[in-house]
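Weekly structure sync - notes
Attendees: PM, LS, DV (DV joined late)
Agenda: review two folding runs queued last week.

Item 1: First target. Sequence and structure tokens pasted below for the record.
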Amino acid sequence: MLHSWRQNFGGETLECILADETGGKIHASCKRSQMFRVQRGLPIGEWRFVENFTVSRASGQYRPTNLRYKMTISGETVISKSDLQNNNHFLDLASYEDIIEEN
């Protein structure tokens, strides 16, 4: 997990940004009932395998990644340890021009 935050729109959720070993990032979310399990299972900066999740089209005015899809973590999602070691933070800042063009 690269980053996480709580959101309170329409019920409390844990939102996070996950990355794969190639640097691809996806916005992931879980409901309050899964929040503490996910926070324990996906510590920031640690690599994990995540299985049995759903993927849907990202919606809303703000998308924290460029990917048009969002991952939803549920009670059926399995999180397990990984041997992968990679200290890259996968920081990808938008240029000023891109921000201005979006508005």
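Item 2: Second target, run right after the first with the same settings.
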Amino acid sequence: MNILIVGLGYAGGRFLHAFESLRHEGTCDIGTIGYVGRNTQNNGLPFFRSVAEGLAATKPDIVVLSVNDVYRMSILEEMSAFDGFVICEKPFLCPWDNTERAVSNLAKTSGFCLDLVERYSPITISLKEFVEANALCLMRANFTWGKNRLGDHRPTCGVTSEIIHPLDIVQFICGGALCYRVSAAHGTCSDFSVSGPAVVDSVAVIARLGDAPVLGYASFVNVARRREVGLIFARPAGSLVFAHLCFDDPRWDDDELRVWEMGATEDVLLLELRTRSRPSACGALGLQKTERLVSDVVASVRGYPPKQPFPDINQAVLLQRLLNEIHAQIDTSCPVLFSAKMQVPTTSLSGNLERLG
């Protein structure tokens, strides 16, 4: 099984380590892993300067699209003849890209998975199963999802690349049949990255998922990484159930879930789960969820069913339309020019995981 990674930056490097871990474990036959980029990284892997060259040379079963979101549309233009499986970094596109044209370039592919990695956390899966088993109905959701990307060297379309995670988690847990309706989006912009002097860095959103209000905040200039989701459900009998999910705190893959209901004198714990980070087979940290995603894709390519359904091209399109709607509704204040007030150091590829991740 051959792999071609298009864009071996931070995200592409994580996928490389995940595939190398599978190879090290001997759970599947991973053959050639090549990459497409602007420059060679002297890592011993086959290097190609164009997608066409990489596809012709490696004949990949799986292509990983891990270029920055602002370049993704141009890469998809070169993928129209590919008939294998595609893993695509989130978000699928930038808000200004042509979604229908992008989808048409993937018409021949055998499968597609958007990298919504938090779906592969045990706490997300456990809560989804609990909600289904108890026929819970969502009454309200809120989230905070942010990190500090000041000085990030990577181009970006902005905070829609961040808010996609909590919006997807809530929808995934509560069942994909419910659709979002956006009521309002308020944001701020700045020169936090190299993308320009006024890129949307933070947004507060008010929406509804079915009949349930969803209020959330996402930011690329949060002073610390924070990834939390709170949910209130109703049982069929009418009582309330509360759930709190916390991701990647204090380290990547350190996730916690707590589900409870209110008793007469104290809360009654219904479900509790903690996961802890551990090194992968190749020694890398913070890869457990990515490894589960990659393992499912490899199984699918080999003809076996994945452990859970992929965020496929149809879901990617629906989420992209939601992000486009949020982007169109954001009203922003005057941009904050961080670089005019201080010298912000640029984060390198081997630098701070808090900024890059």
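Discussion on item 2: The domain at 3-117 is CATH 3.40.50.720 (Rossmann fold).
Action: LS to circulate a short write-up before next sync.
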